[in-house]
Task: structure prediction
Amino acid sequence: MTMTREPDTPPSAEATLQDLSDQMDVARQGLREARNAEVAAELAYKSALRAAVLSEECPKVGTYTEEGKRITVKDRDAWAESRVEDEELVWRIAKATRQAATDQLNILKAQASVGQSISSSVRESYRGTGRWQP
Result:
């Protein structure tokens, strides 16, 4: 949810700010969860990559293929990376999810800043008019 109403009284301005504050609390929790998921996905990817490199099936650097081609570090790494594509995809999605959660929190912060300015302006416009009393 985003700031969708224009506060026209000090109480409605404060209510808008409270709504934004509540949304930021939810966004912060979402960001914490996204960061945890990203770290877990990264660790799973790196663990799977190590397991692939150390597996018996992994081509050994310096050996030769049946065609007589010498296995290089790049060959070994490419083979291992091809075995962990699913884990890498999960990690990349988790990273993008965390970035989206960061972006959402930043948007809410910007809206709250605007809301504070509007709230101040609304309060000032009501000051001394007798239209609203706290």
